[in-house]
Amino acid sequence: MFNAVFIDKQDGEQRVEIKSLDESELPDGDVTVRVQSSTLNYKDALAITGKGPVVKQFPMVPGIDLSGVVEESSASDFKPGDTVLLNGWGVGEKHWGGLAEKARLDSRWLIPQPAAFTPYQSMAIGTAGYTAMLAVMALESHGVTPDQGEILVTGANGGVGSYAITLLARLGYHVVASTGRLEESEYLRGLGAEGVIDRHELSEPGRPLAKERWAGAIDCVGSHTLANVLASTKYDGTVACCGLAQGMDLPASVAPFILRGVTLAGIDSVMKPLAYRVEAWRRLGELLDPEQLTTITQSLTLDQAIGAADDLLEGKIRGRVVVDMT
Ligand code: NDP
């Protein structure tokens, strides 16, 4: 038997509990993993609270990230005792996920645990850090270099935002953080932000073009914020679009694209092919100091994860949440 966060829906009503399950109830897969750590991401909080259509079938065990030890495997790439890592692939949405002491998975979704990090540390990074790395790689591949000027990170106190600041600063970029929590400015400066602005400067409807300021940006919030960021991006700049914390809409005009050559680069971590994942985790290993991860992270037990979901959606949680099952 093992414990899991278990989401069910009956007569249109969603219920969430910690449930003791039998291994025979696990879904199909060629690798069974004893989960050591998982995380609570924005998407997991939407799944647990039912505030977003994340769960595609019920019952569901949420958790889009996990790290752990292989217990059983019929896949040639993995054997019992191997430590593995998973981010995305629809796990926690269509297939039972990481907020459980056990998971049965498709081996094609797994990568070997990166040598630079312990399983706990890799979950402190999790999908948030890996997505931030993909966003930084997108800026790099579109030619945004540290000498070009300021890079804006929106949703700065969140998981993706915190890692985006850390990685960009480590690479020598001049980072400006946009946040609704100015009281956390010291934390953001500690991560490497050289400037902090109030997110309300960007969150209301703005003009199609504004004064050019940003050489590039990593946006976690979408909606009017993303529209205003695009409008104030410098000629030939690139904006990596990661998230929708303010909204899924994009009330923008084509002006920044056709008059300033601005690029909007979409970032999807969920279905990203394996080679990019391995490269992103290699870069994370190169750039992140494992000691610094503790500044960004807090730990919860499986039972506490359910209650923390509301706090996360209300923006009360700073940085990352690791759900520790060791
Ligand atoms: P968090 O909840 O950790 O952070 C979101 C941050 O956004 C908050 O901390 C807050 O930052 C800011 N925020 C919250 N509400 C609003 C609002 N109404 N208006 C403006 N800003 C707001 O989430 P994550 O960092 O894990 O994820 C960020 C976004 O990226 C989410 O939308 C998530 O779904 C998405 N995502 C996308 C991925 C992809 O593959 N594209 C992968 C991972 C995440 P502050 O308090 O500093 O203002």
Automatic annotation (TrEMBL):
SUPFAM superfamilies on file: GroES-like, NAD(P)-binding Rossmann-fold domains
GO molecular function: acryloyl-CoA reductase (NADPH) activity
Protein name: Acrylyl-CoA reductase (NADPH)
Residue ranges annotated for the Enoyl reductase (ER) domain, each copy included: 12-323
InterPro entries: Acrylyl-CoA_reductase_AcuI (IPR014188), ADH-like_C (IPR013149), ADH-like_N (IPR013154), ER (IPR020843), GroES-like_sf (IPR011032), NAD(P)-bd_dom_sf (IPR036291), Zn-ADH-like_protein (IPR051397)
Listed SMART domains: PKS_ER
